[in-house]
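Submission sheet (multi-component)
Chains listed below:
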Amino acid sequence: MAAGTGKPKLAVWKFASCDGCQLSVLDLEDELLELAGAVEIAYFLEASRATVEGPYDLSLVEGSVTTTADAERIRRVRAESRRLVTIGACATAGGIQALRNFADVSEFAAAVYAHPSYISTLDTSTPIADHVAVDFELHGCPVDKRQLLEVLSAFLAERRPAIPEYSVCVECKRRGNVCVTVAHGTPCLGPVTHAGCGALCPSCDRGCYGCFGPMETPNTDSLNVWMRGLGEETPDLIRAYRTFNANAPAFREASEREAER
Ligand code: SF4
Ligand code: SF4
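Outcome: structure written.
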């Protein structure tokens, strides 16, 4: 625990991201007041310009590494942090911006920017764990605020977060949802996707599109057989795995196997 207020020092860092996961921290609302009583919010530019120097007891990191400057900065953040937790699909898998990993980033830049020569970027978007040691990865795009609270509570209590690694299907069963695939023939990535959202999309009669990334042991080959049975074709399957978690190993390998067919 850091000296000063006597409370553990919390820092929240942004890398390449949309800020949605940091907003999930702010979205804790009532709990945030309690949290502010339990920790010193020492560095959180989304919430306040006032900052306190490190070292920090716990760093939450949002976003992926897409520039050489970010690759250097995350090493400094790690050196200043006793514990480091990555939050969201960008930080844990490279995010939607990792679609560049399957293409030529200079072509993307030329299509988007009037003066692509001003853009200085790496060819890839990579998760934080590719660059420094990470103590825990919390999935989601954005992360679920109840899971975020559990992670914060666990690290403050020096215990392992109780975050289940099963699939969205389990959450559907717990909610008593009728399976959208079995009942309506709707393609759904729920069987291979990490739980955490409370089966949000299937609860609204929509298929899951995998925003929490792969579960612990996903059987994408088996799911793809089902998806083909529903009329999905190779380009549909490649697109299904190449969204927010396209670079997560299990989804990347599933899309690459489809691309090679
Ligand atoms: S994981 Fe999703 S919500 Fe979070 S910063 Fe990345 S794009 Fe935004
Ligand atoms: S059901 Fe799937 S796509 Fe929808 S919020 Fe949950 S993990 Fe994300």
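Remark: The longest strand covers residues 56-62.
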